[in-house]
Structure formats: structure tokens, C-alpha cells
Automatic annotation (TrEMBL), chain A:
Origin organism lineage: Bacteria, Pseudomonadati, Pseudomonadota, Gammaproteobacteria, Pseudomonadales
Protein name: Nucleoside ABC transporter membrane protein
GO terms for cellular component: plasma membrane
Membrane topology summary: Multi-pass membrane protein
Major site of localization recorded for this protein: membrane
Pfam family, one: BPD_transp_2
Transmembrane segments: 6-26, 38-56, 62-84, 91-113, 143-160, 191-209, 221-239, 246-265, 271-290
Highest taxon in the source lineage: Bacteria
Cellular localization per UniProt: Cell inner membrane
GO molecular function: transmembrane transporter activity
Automatic annotation (TrEMBL), chain B:
Name of this protein: Nucleoside ABC transporter ATP-binding protein
Taxonomy of the source species: Bacteria, Pseudomonadati, Pseudomonadota, Gammaproteobacteria, Pseudomonadales
Localization: Cell membrane
Protein source organism: Pseudomonas kuykendallii
Pfam family, one: ABC_tran
Domain of life of the organism encoding this protein: Bacteria
UniProtKB/TrEMBL annotation, chain C:
Keyword Membrane: yes
The keyword Cytoplasm appears for this protein: no
Classification via Pfam families: BPD_transp_2
GO cellular component: plasma membrane
Sequence intervals crossing the membrane: 21-43, 63-81, 93-109, 115-138, 150-169, 198-216, 296-312, 324-346
Phylogenetic lineage: Bacteria, Pseudomonadati, Pseudomonadota, Gammaproteobacteria, Pseudomonadales
Protein name: Nucleoside ABC transporter membrane protein
Organism: Pseudomonas kuykendallii
Length: 308, 513, 365
């Protein structure tokens, strides 16, 4: 393998891992606050279709990105109302959100399938992007990828250093105690869910405006679900999220690698790789039930109502 | 120590009423407390103590009545406002976050203005030293003992200028000796002018600590008194009215053949939050009740799980627990039940009974080996008959057997569960905290059922945190501490003080071979 | 909010069944609003969507054809969901069933024995059960979350199917279309009516309906499954074997989904194609919840879902609406159901009334 190929693989790895990173960061915050939102796939798709339509109609990619985020927030509010406001089963509500999001995005996007759009182009940072191997990966990407770096730093700071992070963690561990202490449990959780929605919407927008600038039904192909597994993979620790997202990015572009070393494997079999990798990762990481319990937010997925 | 009754009370509650669907939790409650006063709030479970405290602390708002603070009426909107006024609260179930450090826990409670966890560290050290409660701000709460966690709660309250400290059953998690240490701290605080509201149902410690007492019963104030001037009987009558069974004393007996033998039981708990058991030895004979005392979290749950079969040992170790000389330590619960073991777990809802299933289904839950199924199909007629018999024999108050377990009161559900287990005619009954959270009437009924089962020749093991209860019903008694079991003594030959020492781990360690 | 929720104290049995109806009504109302916004007259559109497709005998027969796979999958899911095992993998289990059945069927095209069909159906059912069993193994052995593993197995199954239909199972005489050879008559499910596509699979669906009903309502194993779902600790406390029950539930739901899949390829389709399922396995999730995890409820919910599928096809042709309206309505009805379910445990109250009552009481005092 020559160095150019490796440089390209690293570049594509980060590019492919970016939507996973964005969704997983959002879901991480959401789960830290104790809410399991399985609707990531639905919110991503809705973000993707709204982002595409707005960008296509207005001609502004950034307006598209903004609306993709807002679309994600909108759907997440629906989830928050049913799962938090009415304290319904979070698993079922998340599934409903995904089914609804898949249907809604296909319905809205039916007329936009296959239309061409000039998406985000890479903006290489002079000098830095010419560093061998890693330059293109870190400094030769499009603006949304740089944004994902910034958001990663932001989430890491909030969770590890800020008072807001303490509050989120407290609410996720023991909502009753947090409430007795006067912390607004439902408000914290709703905000966390909304942040998750914005990130999923953004990830969808990245798919339809930068990664493959177009709209196709189900174009996220399970990335929302993989991101959920990523959070487990990361044991709810933020630095592992970025590592995991890029590793999965690598698993998704293995056809590039295969071509590089001259292997001819049917495309459909290679396409299974990220999903197989997800299962393998889940198996390796969940084996130790006690360890998983140590890191998982204690009240994750449990409905909570004030006044108990 | 004295306080001036003529001065303005620090806190006055007037005509406080709070309704919940189906119950009147507080009914025109009056309470007043002076600066520097240690006031007891007495009452049995469900009397409305918790509701009243939550109202004072702003967790819930009263439907009627007013709160007067230093002579000024005010509305307590939320705990933040209460803390701002100098009201601190130590919850029975700690409101601590296990995955956070001591300093982080304290910083969270104090609000953003108080500073970051790091900035608070020197003050935490200073306060904890001043009141004799050693604490290390860096440590994660899950690595602390129960007593240390309580210190975190108290120090958290003392970090601000404290005017009124509310403690909800603080000694229920302490050994008698630890409780005495806590009382020293509380007297120190009161001497500095802090008012203390001490919630309890243990009459002895109320008399040791408090200058005055207010008693609640059924949501109403049933009386005020000076604890040192009242007998236990007077206080108990205020708490429960003219209930029977308060003074019941049961004759102590000697058991017959050994039914349950636990022999050098060692079990490593892989869960870092749990307790490991070491070298536990225990025998329970037919026709006797053995009581195991201990502060929660000292291995009770683990011992219970090993006895019930929820946790099993490898078959090479199956001799560690024997039932009628048959090794059972490797068997599943259903196999142990077939050999005559029945079990009343500590938690009624979610462990001993499925909350959202009917009483009939809950009767089937453990009674399925009594011929209630045929060829894999449920015989609903027999299940109903069994459930109805439990309800009738054990005076369970419920509309019918179709009612869900969740909708029964604690005492009624406990009677149902106990009846279900006793009607299976066990050779050995293991009961955990059999009267926890149960009203006095039901508790007396449960005690009578246990004694009757004992007199019918069954072996009974009771694990409880309530030392008074154990002295009342058990024939022999021991204690668990840090996963080790003390030797057993005849209840008639020992004293609560001695058992209290065992609860703190002061007993001869089992020598290694 | 003007409305407040007050705990009922116990479940309302009436709301348990009224809530799905209420959810249906709300879905229709939102649908009408959506149509109006998009410029389609609501009543006519609903006629196109829900009435026209079943206005003749052929339509009813098509309804049953669509309902069969949905019902089989949903019945299996009901067993798993009663145990709170969130099998999202009916779609993958269905596809693998179709794939395995087809792999056998194309090799025995020349057989004329009745055993051909039996073997093909058995192959599909077993393959579906194995695919479900894979998730059971991952969960019981490695503690891997079944929601995520079954979803991943769906994508893997789809890619496997695509690989085989583009590769090893492609009909050599098929002009390079991604399709298998047409199965022999002996491995086809016979039709049960003359002028419709309803096939003998309907007997399997009825059998499964009764079997699942007996399992869940009458048998002790079903009781154990429900206890496990409601209260894991209580199940452990009496010694119900969690692992065995997880295996059982996933094998049953996988097997039924596999049967649904192989029923599609041996029934209405007659060969393996990439589009074996238009999301039947996902639709079954909604159906299982809407039917309250109860076989009888699932029967009605399944027929409704099949009608939505037919309506979606019809709406595309007759009203120029995207076919994905089916999924949109699925999502909506599930959302409304979950929201309405709050009424099972809580009673809605007008806040106004409370305020008034308090004022009255004050006046009285």
C-alpha cells in the first residue's frame, strides 16, 4: 500500500465517521441525562431531507444545515413530549420516532429523489493539510467536519469540566435525588433530548449536503443505530466516542482498502462489514455486565415522573 | 442546654393540609420549633412525617395552611429557597450521586454561586473537622460506607449558615454506637443555636436526644410531649392509638433438629458496590426463629440471594448450604422450594410480588408447585381457590383476587406474601425485613403468624434491621457486619448493647484453618 | 396547561382497549389535516386510501395476502415483547427465511413430491428461527443488547439476500435480472380461492394465532414469559430460567417471521427477488403494539396495517401520493398510541375545575 492510498483512507475514514460522531455525541449527552432515544435514525433522516430541500430551494447550504438541525429538534420535541411529558416507555417511543421519521422523510422527499446539488467542498488549510498521512485527514476536510471537531471539544468540555455536566450526570444517575435537591429534572432531560435531536439533524444534513449531496430514501442506512451502539462502545466516555466513530468510519470504507490491496469481494458482502463490526463490538464490550453497569447512567431508559 | 420558649419561633407550621389521591397525608398540622431546640417528630410509617418534611423543605407545596419563618409568613417554592433560608435536610434514602465525588455532590447542592468543587474543598475539610466528621472531598461517593455517606449529607447542610436541620430517620442506617456519635454532633449544633427536627420512630433515641416531641398519627397531630417525662407506652399510644399487640411478648423456645445449615460460606461479590461474604456459619433448627441483625449493606442482600437460590454456588461447593442435610447451594429456587424452603424477600413490590399482576397471578408465582398447573397449562380455578384462601386466612384487605398487587397497602401485601409462603407448609421459611414499612396492626399480625409457624415445627430465619423486632420474636440472634456473621446467642441471654457491638463488627473473627 | 393528569390508582381496563381506537381516530384526523394542506380533498383521499382497495373480492383477497406476513411477524413479536425482549429483527428474520427457502427451492425445481413444499417451508422457518436464535445467543452469552443486534442483523440479512440474488442464486436464464429462477409447482403454496392470490399460508397464520393465544393466555410457560417481562427480579426469585425464556421467545418470533418470509416467496411471488418485503417486519412492530401484544388485537391491527399497505399502493396510482404514506401513518398511529396510553393509568382533568373546586372549598370554610 502506498502512502497516497493511506492518506486517502485516513481522510475518508474521518469523513465517513463524521455523521456517526455527530449523532453519537448528541445521544451521549441524552443518555447521560438518563434518556434512551432510539429515534436517532428517524431524526437523522428528517434532518437530511429538510436540509436538502431547504438548501436546494434557497441555494444556501448553511441555511440547509440550520434547518436540518431545527428539523431534528422538532422531532426530538415530539419524543420529549411523549417519553418525558407523558412518561411513556422510552424504547417504544424511540422506535415510534424512527418509524415516523423514516415515513415522514420518504413522504416529504418523494419529489426530491435524485436531484443534483452542489454540496460542501473540502476547504484545505494551507500547509497543515500537506502533512503526510494525517494532514488531509485533519485539515483537508469540508467545513462541517471541522464543525464536528469543535462540537466534540464542546461536548467534552461540558461533560468533563462544567457544572452543566455535573447536573446532567446527576439527573441521569438519580432523578429522585436530583429533584429533591431542586434540580429541574424534566427540563434538563428535555434540553438533552433536544441537543440530541439537533446533532442527529445536523448529521442528517451532513449526509445530504456534504457526504453525498443528494436525497435518497433511507440514505442514512442505519447510521443512527450504529451511533447508539457506539455510545455503548464508548462506555459513555466522550473521548472513546470519537475513536469509535472513526473506527466505524474505517469499517464502512473497507472497500477502498480492499481495492487498494487488490481484493475482489462482492460489494454486498463488504457493505455488511459495519453492521458485523457493530455486533462484534457490542459482544466484546457488553460481556462484562458489571463493568457495563458501572459506566452506564443508572436511570437510563426509566420513565420518571415528578412527585415520587 | 435550654431555649427560650417566649422568643419568636424559628419555624411555625399552621393548619398544614396536603391531599394525595385517595389519602389525606397531612390534616391541619401545627408545629413550631425554637432556635436551638431539638424537636422530635414521631409517628409510624404513613403517618405523614415525610410529607410534612417535604413541605418544609419546599419539595412539595401544601394545599392549605401557612409556613411562618422567623415570624414572617412565606411560600416555600422549592428546595433552593429553603436552602437559601438556612434549612438543611438529610434524607433517609440519601440524595447523593454515587458516581460523583464528595466535593462534586456538595457543589451541586450549593448552587453555582458557591463555587466549583475544587474551590469548595478547603471549606469541606474545615467544616467536617469542626464537627468531628472526617471526610475526604476527592473520594467518589460509591466508595464510602453508609455512615460516611450520611456525613456527606450532613456536611453538605452545614456548609451554609444553617438555621434548621431536618433529619429523616437518620439512625436507621447506623449501629447504636455510630448513632451516639451522631447525637454528639447534633447537640454541638444545637448549642450553636441551630434548630433540629429529628424524625424517628425509635422511642429510646428520641428520649436520649430530644427536648420535645410532636407525634403524628394518620396525618394529624395526635399530641405534643416532653419525651423524658413519658413512658414508651404513652408515646406508642400517641403514635398508633389503642392498637393491640404492642406489648406482645412471645415465649422463647429451643429448637429441635437442624433444618438449615450454612457451613463456612464464602462468596466473592464481583459487583464493586456489593458486599462479599466470608466464612459465614449458621444453623437454624426446627421450631425456632433465628434473627440476624445488621445495618443495611453489610451482606444481607447477598446472604438472602444465596439462601433463596437467586445466586448459586458451583456444584463443587453445594455442601455449603444444606437443607435437612441435603446440599442445596447449587440449586435453583424452584428446586429448593420443592425441598421445603419458602422465602419472603425484603422488597414486596418488584421482588416478592409482580406489581402489575393480579393477586391470583401472584399466588401462582410461587405456588405453582402445589398442583396449580397441569400438562403445562394453568388451572385457573385452582389458582383462584389458592389466592382466595390466602386472602381469607390472612385477613388481606382487598376487593378480590383480581386486584393488582400494586394497589394493596404495604401491610396487606406483606400479609398476602407471607400467607402465600406459609400455606405452602414450609420446613424452612426465610423472611427479610418482614414488617418493614408496615403499620403496627399488620406488623403484630405478621409476628403472630411467624410464631404460629414456629410452634407448628418450621424453622424460621428472620433478617431485619429492626433490633427491637428481632428481640421480640427471635429465639436466637446474631448480626452481620461487612459480610461476616457473628456467633449466635440465645436471645434471652444477650442484650441489644451486645448485639449492637456485633453489628459494628466487634466479635471474635472466625480463625483460619 | 389546562389539562392535568391525575393518577387513577389502578389500570383502566376500558382505556386499555379504547386507547388504540383513540389513536386510530387521531391518526385519521392528522391525516386529513395533512391531505388538506397538500391540496388533496381529505374525504376522497381517505376513500382512495382505505375503502377503494377493498371494494371488491379481489381487493379483500389482496388484503389477506398482505396481512399474512404482517400477522405472522407480529404474533412472534408479541411473544418476545411480552418478555420485554425488544426484537426489532422481524424484518431480517423474514428475509433470511425467504432466502433459505429459496436456496432450497431453486435446487429442487424438478421435484414433484409434496415434500418439496414441506421442506422449503421448514427450511425458511428454521432459518428465521436461527436468525432470531443468533440474537438470543448474543444476549444470553455475551449480554449484548438485543435491540441493536437485531437491527444490525436486519441490515446483514438484507445484504446477504442482495448478495445471493445478484450472485449465486441468480437465474442463469434470467437476462441478468437480479432474480432467482421460478420455483417448481411442488414448492409453491396452493391458492385457496379461484380468482385471488390468497394462498394456503392463511392456515399457518390461523394456526399461529391460536397457538400464540394458548401460549400467552393459558400455558405456564406464557405466564413465565409475562413475569420475566414485567418483573425480572421476581422471575429470578422463583427460579424461572431467564436464558431459556429469552431463547424460546426469540426462536418463536424468529421462526414465525421466517415462515412469513418463505410464505411470501413460495406464495404470491414464486421466486426470490430483492424486494421480498416492503418493510413487513417493521410494520409488525407497530401492529404488535397496536394489538396490545394480544393475538386477537393483533389480528385486527394486522388487517388494518395490510389495508394501509394496499391503500398506499392505490394512493400512489390514483391520487399521486407517495407510497411512503403507509410508513408515515404507521409512525403516527404508534406515536398517538403511546401518547393515549397515558390515559390507562391517569385520568385527564381540567385544571380550571380544580381551581374552582378549591375556591368553593375555601368559601365553604
Amino acid at each position: 500500500m502506498d502512502i497516497d492510498l493511506l492518506t486517502n483512507i485516513f481522510y475518508a475514514m474521518v469523513r465517513t465517521g463524521t455523521p456517526l460522531l455527530l449523532v453519537a455525541l448528541g445521544e451521549l449527552v441524552c443518555e447521560k441525562s438518563g434518556v434512551l432515544n432510539l429515534g436517532q435514525e428517524g431524526m437523522m433522516l428528517f434532518g437530511a431531507v429538510i436540509g436538502f430541500i431547504v438548501a436546494f430551494s434557497s441555494g444556501s447550504l448553511w441555511l440547509g444545515v440550520l434547518c436540518a438541525c431545527l428539523a431534528g429538534v422538532l422531532l426530538s420535541l415530539l419524543f420529549a413530549f411523549v417519553a418525558l411529558g407523558l412518561s411513556s416507555n422510552q424504547v417504544a417511543t424511540g422506535l415510534a420516532l424512527t418509524i415516523f421519521g423514516v415515513g415522514l422523510s420518504s413522504f416529504i422527499g418523494a419529489a426530491w429523489v435524485g436531484k443534483p446539488l452542489a454540496g460542501f467542498e473540502p476547504v484545505a488549510i494551507p500547509l497543515l493539510s500537506e502533512i503526510p498521512l494525517l494532514g488531509r485527514m485533519l485539515f483537508g476536510q469540508d467545513l462541517l467536519v471541522y464543525l464536528s471537531f469543535a462540537l466534540f471539544a464542546l461536548v467534552a468540555w461540558v461533560i468533563l469540566k462544567s457544572r452543566a455536566g455535573l447536573i446532567i450526570q446527576a439527573v441521569g444517575e438519580n432523578p429522585n435525588a436530583a429533584s429533591a435537591m431542586g434540580l429541574p429534572v424534566l427540563r434538563v432531560r428535555t434540553l438533552a433530548v433536544m441537543f440530541g435531536g439537533a446533532m442527529a439533524g445536523l448529521a442528517g444534513g451532513y449526509m445530504s449536503l456534504a457526504y453525498t449531496p443528494m436525497w435518497a430514501e433511507n440514505m442514512t442506512a442505519g447510521r443512527g443505530w450504529i451511533a447508539l451502539a457506539l455510545v455503548v462502545f464508548a462506555s459513555w466516555r466522550v473521548f472513546r466516542v470519537v475513536l469509535g466513530a472513526w473506527l466505524f468510519g474505517l469499517a464502512s470504507i473497507l472497500h477502498l482498502v480492499a481495492q487498494g490491496i487488490g481484493l475482489a469481494i462482492p460489494g454486498n458482502l463488504l457493505a455488511m462489514l459495519p453492521y458485523v463490526a457493530t455486533i462484534v463490538v457490542l459482544v466484546v464490550l457488553s460481556r462484562d455486565a458489571i463493568k457495563t453497569r458501572l459506566y452506564a447512567p443508572v436511570s437510563l431508559g426509566q420513565p420518571w415522573k415528578a412527585g415520587h | 442546654m435550654s431555649f427560650d420558649t417566649a422568643s419568636t419561633p424559628r419555624l411555625q407550621m399552621r393548619g398544614i393540609t396536603k391531599r394525595y389521591p385517595g389519602t389525606l397525608a397531612n390534616d391541619r398540622v401545627e408545629l413550631s420549633i425554637q432556635p436551638g431546640e431539638i424537636r422530635a417528630l414521631l409517628g409510624e410509617n404513613g403517618a405523614g412525617k415525610s410529607t410534612l418534611m417535604k413541605i418544609i423543605y419546599g419539595v412539595t407545596q401544601p394545599d392549605e395552611g401557612e409556613i411562618i419563618w422567623h415570624g414572617e409568613p412565606l411560600k416555600m417554592r422549592d428546595p433552593a429557597q429553603a436552602r437559601g433560608l438556612g434549612i438543611g435536610m438529610v434524607f433517609q434514602h440519601f440524595s447523593l450521586f454515587e458516581t460523583l465525588s464528595v466535593a462534586e455532590n456538595i457543589a451541586l447542592a450549593m448552587g453555582a454561586a458557591a463555587g466549583t468543587p475544587k474551590q469548595l474543598e478547603p471549606r469541606i475539610r474545615e467544616v467536617s473537622q469542626r464537627y468531628g466528621m472526617a471526610l475526604e472531598p476527592h473520594r467518589l461517593v460509591h466508595s464510602l460506607s453508609i455512615g460516611e455517606r450520611q456525613r456527606v449529607e450532613i456536611v453538605r447542610c452545614l456548609m451554609q449558615d444553617i438555621k434548621l436541620l431536618i433529619l429523616d430517620e437518620p439512625t436507621s442506617v447506623l449501629t447504636p454506637q455510630e448513632a451516639d456519635e451522631l447525637f454528639v454532633t447534633l447537640r454541638h449544633l444545637a448549642a450553636e443555636g441551630c434548630s433540629i427536627l429529628f424524625i424517628s420512630h425509635k422511642l429510646g433515641e428520641v428520649r436520649a436526644l430530644c427536648q420535645s416531641a410532636t407525634v403524628l398519627r394518620g396525618g394529624k397531630v395526635s399530641g405534643h410531649c416532653v419525651p423524658t417525662e413519658c413512658s414508651d407506652m404513652d408515646l406508642a399510644r400517641l403514635m398508633v392509638g389503642a392498637a393491640e399487640g404492642l406489648e406482645a411478648s412471645y415465649p422463647k423456645v429451643h429448637g429441635g433438629l437442624t433444618r438449615l445449615r450454612v457451613d463456612d460460606l464464602n462468596w466473592h461479590n464481583a459487583d464493586p458496590f456489593g458486599t462479599s461474604l466470608a466464612q459465614c456459619r449458621l444453623e437454624v433448627r426446627s421450631g425456632e426463629i433465628v434473627g440476624i441483625a445488621g445495618v443495611a449493606g453489610n451482606g444481607q442482600d447477598e446472604l438472602l440471594a444465596l439462601l433463596s437460590g437467586e445466586v448459586r454456588l458451583p456444584s463443587t461447593e453445594r455442601e455449603r448450604i444444606t437443607l435437612d442435610n441435603q446440599p442445596v447451594a447449587n440449586l435453583y429456587p424452584d428446586a429448593r422450594r420443592q425441598l421445603g424452603l419458602t422465602f419472603v424477600p425484603a422488597e414486596r413490590l418488584g421482588h416478592g410480588a409482580v406489581p402489575d399482576m393480579s393477586l391470583a397471578d401472584n399466588a401462582l408465582l410461587t405456588g405453582f408447585q402445589m398442583g396449580l398447573t397441569r400438562a403445562g397449562m394453568i388451572n385457573h380455578g385452582k389458582v383462584m381457590a389458592f389466592a382466595d384462601k390466602i386472602i381469607a386466612d390472612y385477613a388481606v384487605k382487598t376487593p378480590d383476587a383480581h386486584t393488582t398487587a400494586r394497589s394493596l397497602s404495604g401491610g396487606n401485601l406483606q400479609k398476602f406474601i407471607l400467607g402465600r409462603e406459609i400455606l405452602q407448609q414450609p420446613k424452612l421459611l426465610v423472611a427479610a425485613h418482614p414488617t418493614w414499612g408496615v403499620d403496627v396492626g399488620a406488623a403484630a399480625a405478621i409476628h403472630r403468624s411467624l410464631i404460629a409457624l414456629r410452634d407448628a415445627g418450621a424453622a424460621i430465619l428472620v433478617i431485619s434491621e429492626d433490633l427491637d423486632e428481632l428481640f421480640q420474636i427471635s429465639d436466637r440472634i446474631g448480626a452481620l457486619c461487612s459480610g461476616r456473621l457473628s456467633p449466635l446467642a440465645e436471645t434471652a441471654q444477650t442484650t441489644p448493647v451486645e448485639v449492637g457491638r456485633w453489628m459494628a463488627g466487634e466479635f471474635e473473627p472466625v480463625t483460619h484453618a | 396547561m389546562l389539562l392535568s393528569l391525575e393518577p387513577r390508582g389502578r389500570q383502566s381496563r376500558a382505556m386499555l382497549w379504547l386507547s388504540p381506537l383513540l389513536a386510530g381516530v387521531l391518526t385519521l384526523a392528522s391525516g386529513a389535516l395533512l391531505f388538506a394542506i397538500l391540496g388533496h380533498p381529505p374525504l376522497e383521499t381517505f376513500k382512495v386510501l382505505l375503502i377503494d382497495p377493498v371494494s371488491d373480492f379481489y381487493g379483500v383477497s389482496e388484503l389477506l395476502v398482505k396481512a399474512l406476513p404482517i400477522l405472522l411477524c407480529a404474533l412472534g413479536l408479541a411473544v418476545a415483547y411480552q418478555a420485554r425482549i425488544w426484537n426489532i429483527g422481524a424484518e431480517g428474520q423474514l428475509l433470511i427465511g425467504a432466502l433459505a427457502g429459496s436456496a432450497l427451492a431453486v435446487h429442487i425445481i424438478d421435484w414433484e413430491s409434496r415434500w418439496a413444499l414441506t421442506l422449503v417451508l421448514a427450511a425458511g422457518t428454521l432459518a428465521g428461527a436461527a436468525w432470531g436464535g443468533l440474537a438470543a445467543w448474543l444476549r444470553t452469552r455475551f449480554n449484548a443488547n438485543e435491540i441493536l443486534t437485531t437491527i444490525m442483523l436486519n441490515y446483514i440479512a438484507l445484504n446477504l439476500l442482495l448478495f445471493f440474488v445478484h450472485g449465486p442464486l441468480k437465474d442463469p436464464a434470467g437476462f441478468n435480472f437480479p432474480e432467482s429462477a421460478t420455483f417448481g409447482d411442488a414448492s409453491r403454496l396452493p391458492a385457496v380461492v379461484e380468482d385471488g392470490r390468497v394462498h394456503a399460508g392463511i392456515y399457518f397464520a390461523l394456526l399461529a394465532l391460536v397457538a400464540v393465544w394458548v401460549l400467552l393466555q393459558k400455558s405456564f410457560v406464557g405466564f413465565q414469559i409475562k413475569v420475566l417481562g414485567l418483573d425480572k427480579r421476581a422471575a429470578g426469585f422463583v427460579g424461572f430460567r431467564e436464558r431459556r425464556l429469552v431463547w424460546l421467545a426469540l426462536l418463536i418470533s424468529g421462526g414465525l417471521a421466517g415462515l412469513a418470509g418463505v410464505g411470501e416467496v413460495t406464495g404470491p411471488i414464486g421466486q426470490l427477488v430483492p424486494q421480498v418485503s416492503p418493510g413487513y417486519g417493521y410494520a409488525a412492530i407497530t401492529v404488535a403494539f397496536l394489538g396490545r401484544l394480544n393475538p386477537i388485537g393483533i389480528l385486527f391491527a394486522g388487517l388494518l396495517m395490510a389495508l394501509l399497505y394496499l391503500g398506499g399502493e392505490n394512493a400512489q396510482m390514483a391520487a399521486n401520493l407517495p407510497q411512503s404514506i403507509t410508513q408515515l401513518f404507521q409512525g403516527m398511529v404508534l406515536f398517538f398510541l403511546l401518547a393515549c396510553d397515558v390515559l390507562i393509568l391517569y385520568r385527564p382533568r381540567l385544571k380550571l375545575k380544580w381551581a374552582k373546586r378549591a375556591a368553593l372549598q375555601k368559601a365553604a370554610a
